[in-house]
Write the structure tokens for this entry.
Amino acid sequence: MDIVSFLNVSTSEKKVQIDKLSETSFSKEIRICMAKDSVMQEHTAPDAITILIIKGRVRIDSLEESKELNNGDMVYFNAKVPHSLEALEDSVIRLTLSKHDSEQRVFSLVENIPSHRTF
């Protein structure tokens, strides 16, 4: 049994930090740390995803709709639904991907993230 802590975050000068924390037989768990005012531009995922705000406040825009998510709020997106995120305050986010999705795709969404991050 492995324990994964989403709140055990090392400080970084990056505006967005992405780490794969675990992988199971059916999903991948990704931690996204976003500094206030940082943005992940509009993108899509090839499979369904869930986004859970562990700590902070984030605005998510999708299909001409905008929602503000706070601590403990979660959204679900079907495959290929365009969405973007903006951190309204420093935030820690749990992203759950399909086992078949590539975490490299997520890393590539942010310029300052090395493409070799692993857990």
User: Anything to note?
Assistant: The radius of gyration is 13 Å. The chain has one domain: 16-107. Strands lie at 16-23, 27-34, 39-43, 49-55, 57-62, 65-70, 74-77, 83-87, 91-98. The first strand starts at residue 16 and ends at 23.
